Amino acid sequence: MKGIIVVNAYIKTKSQILQAERIKEELENLGAEVEIKKNFNLAQIKNGEVYNKRYDFCVYLDKDKACARMLEKSGVRLFNCSTAIEICDNKMLTHIALSNNEINMPDCIYAPLCYYQDAKISQAFINEVASTLSFPLIAKKCYGSLGAGVYLINNLQQLKDFEEENKLCEHFYQKFIDCGKGEDIRVIVIGGKYVCSMKRTNENDFRSNVELGGKGQNFIADEKIISLCERVASLLNLYYCGIDVIVDKDGERYICEVNSNAFFAEAERVCKVNIAKIYAQHVLNSLCDIDNCI
């Protein structure tokens, strides 16, 4: 089996390189031939047809939608598939995809997309957001990783300022769930099955992300969290994902975000689980009978 692991063409974070290297290591231990490739011209359209150097599969750690779709259309099996990547990349689309499926999520209000810098924001919209979600509330840009683009809004003026500054980019507003300062549960699901989970806590920020100073510790998930997260992964057609669950002071669980390319180094460390190996095994098992193909 010949495969590639695709990372962003302009990769900056050490975490993404380490993620790719860990998956490569475990795939090669299982007998696959694997390269790590930056997303430079991996596919082209020639004479009206999509063309690429032939690979059997691709572990896609980028979020470039065009490349993902082109590789997929040329016959390469992607993990995750392009549609799942696109839905998870846009946080509002994630919530829409999960809605009407009895999945508990914080209440959300999308912001209308504006195309003109000189357009005046609607005070009626600002008032509706404030009255519906109350303060504090969360403002989120639809695109962003590692906690970027997520803001705590404490009053009407901050809300108005945020809307004015971000009216030209996709964003939405979300009810703030009081779960303690910077705390959530990151759940790893592979092949539709729960693998492990860790509690992330950040004493210095309302965002729990490890990259922002959050610390992980092993967490024993109960059946309610396990079944909830497995259902989320199934609904979004994800082969691999990290699902962020927040728990309020009354014990109510909410799906906060779903990450199709979630970093797993901290989870491997604190949970003592070889996530990369489990993912590699799932990739190869999904392609064919591993004993006959490698």
List the helices and strands and how they pair.
Blueprint: E1 2-7, H1 14-29, E2 33-38, E3 43-46, E4 49-52, E5 57-60, H2 65-73, E6 77-79, H3 82-89, H4 91-98, E7 108-110, H5 123-133, E8 137-141, E9 150-153, H6 156-166, E10 171-175, E11 183-190, E12 193-201, E13 215-218, H7 223-235, E14 240-247, E15 253-259, H8 265-271, H9 275-287, H10 290-293
Parallel strand pairs: 1-2, 1-5, 5-6
Antiparallel strand pairs: 3-4, 7-10, 8-9, 8-10, 11-12, 11-14, 12-13, 14-15
Helix pairs in contact: 1-9, 2-3, 5-6
Tell me what the structure shows.
This protein has 294 residues and is of the alpha+beta class. It is globular and about 60 Å long. The protein is built from ten helices and 15 strands. It has a five-stranded antiparallel β-sheet with strand order 13-12-11-14-15. Strands 2-1-5-6 form a four-stranded parallel β-sheet, sandwiched between helices. A four-stranded antiparallel β-sheet has the order 7-10-8-9, sandwiched between helices. Helix 1 (14-29) crosses helix 9 and helix 5 (123-133) packs across helix 6 (156-166). 35% of the residues are buried.
